Input
Amino acid sequence: MIVETVRWRRVDDDRLAGLAEGALLRVLVKDQAVRFVRMDGVLRAMADRCPHQGKSFEGGWCEGGHVVCPWHRLQFDPVTGRCRFGMASNVEVFPVEERADGVHIGFPHTTVRIFGIDLW
Output
């Protein structure tokens, strides 16, 4: 049986605690580039790779509750990952928890389970 779960990782970047509303921050988490944004007081995370042409959101901004890609002005919802105007694929988003010991991000994880034993 294949089981889809979330594997939580602590993000070791002190800048996240003070991330201002509407600000974007790129952080490498386990060799994956993640773009963090704080919207409506909640920290959100999405892959730092626009699905349109695979470029980083570096130089992008927030507008109307969406992250705007600086290359072609496509807008993505940081909660759902959906492209606002349906012109591109969705961007991958990740759950985020702000805990007492820091920020944690959840990455999808697939486990193969046989007879109740996780193989990987």
